Amino acid sequence: MLRKGHAAGHATVVRLIENAEMVAATETVVRRMGLSGLCGFDFMLEANTGNAYLIEVNPRATQVGHLALGEGRDLPAALYGAVTGQAIRVAPASPANRTIRTFSARMGKRSAE
Predict the structure, then answer these.
(1) Which residue has the higher pLDDT, 92 or 105?
(2) Measured in Å, how far apart are the chain's first and last C-alpha atoms?
(3) How many CA atoms are closer than 13 Å to the CA of 44, on its beta-carbon side?
């Protein structure tokens, strides 16, 4: 997370990162709890060590869940494939620069940067 709407608010600008510790934790939770469907895992990274801490699991699609983020990371395509039985077509990753600005829930306006 690069920015928030306010001190205790949701992220308004995020950067996609690769983190093996977060992937392993997510896979473990999904497997042990038998999760299926759309859910979102939120982590915080400790500034000094880079250690990842799972802070919550949301039982729904989250802010960037609609974006095609590359092969194996396209939730809408995976859902469509599961429902229709059709092969998943790989879409180009979007956004290319890996920084995403979200919209504020307030009045549908973009958050301030």
Answers:
(1) 92
(2) 13
(3) 7
- Residue 95: asked if its preceding bond is cis (omega within 30°), the reply is yes
Tokens in use for 74?
Answer: 């396209």
Neighbours of 44 (CB within 10 A): 12
d(CA 2, CA 97): 14
Pair 98, 16: CB distance under 8 Å = yes
27-64 pLDDT, tens digit per residue, is 999 999 999 878 889 898 899 999 999 999 999 888 77
Q: List % helix, strand, coil for the chain (3-state, nearest 5).
A: 20, 20, 55
pTM above 0.85, yes or no: no
Torsion of CA 86, 88, 89, 91, to 10 degrees: 150
